[in-house]
Amino acid sequence: MTALPIPPPEFAGMMTTAEVAKLLNVNKRHIYRLVQEQRIPHYKWGRLLRFHPVEIAAWLEEFRRSPGGEQQWG
C-alpha cells in the first residue's frame, strides 16, 4: 500500500477543494475546472490541491462590481 503524502506545514489553515466549492456555492467539479484552466489561485503538492483563504478573497474581489459603477450592460 502506498503511503499518503504528508502536506508541508505551510498548508496548515488552507482550504480544500470542497471548502472552496462550499464558499462559492458551486460543485467541486467547477473548482477542478477553474484549476485546470488556471483561473483560480491554488497550490498543488503531488495530488493535493489547496487554496489560501486570503488569495481566494483577493481573487473574488477582482470580480466585484459595484452598483451603478462603470459596468455597462448591453
Keywords for this structure?
single chain; 2 strands; two-stranded antiparallel ribbon; mainly alpha
What does this 3D model show about the protein?
The chain is mainly α and 74 residues long. It has a domain at 14-62. Helix content is 36%, strand content 8%. It has 3 helices and 2 strands, in the order H-H-E-E-H. The protein has helices spanning 17-24, 28-36, 53-62, and strands at residues 43-45, 48-50. Strands 1-2 form a two-stranded antiparallel sheet. A hairpin with a 2-residue loop joins strand 1 (43-45) and strand 2. Helix 1 packs across helix 2. It is elongated. The mean pLDDT is 87.
The averaged pLDDT comes out at 87
Shape designation: elongated
Helix content: 25-40%
- Largest beta-sheet details: 2 strands, antiparallel
Count of alpha and pi helical runs: 3
Strand order of the largest sheet: 1-2
Low confidence ranges: none
Q: What amount of the residues lies in strands?
A: 5-15%
> What is the number of strand segments?
2
Q: Measured on Cα atoms, how large is the radius of gyration?
A: 15 Å
Calculate the terminal CA-CA distance, rounded to whole Å. Answer: 58 Å
Q: What structural class do helix, strand and pairing data support?
A: mainly alpha
Order of helices and strands: HHEEH
Please give the structural blueprint.
Blueprint: H1 17-24, H2 28-36, E1 43-45, E2 48-50, H3 53-62
Antiparallel strand pairs: 1-2
Helix pairs in contact: 1-2
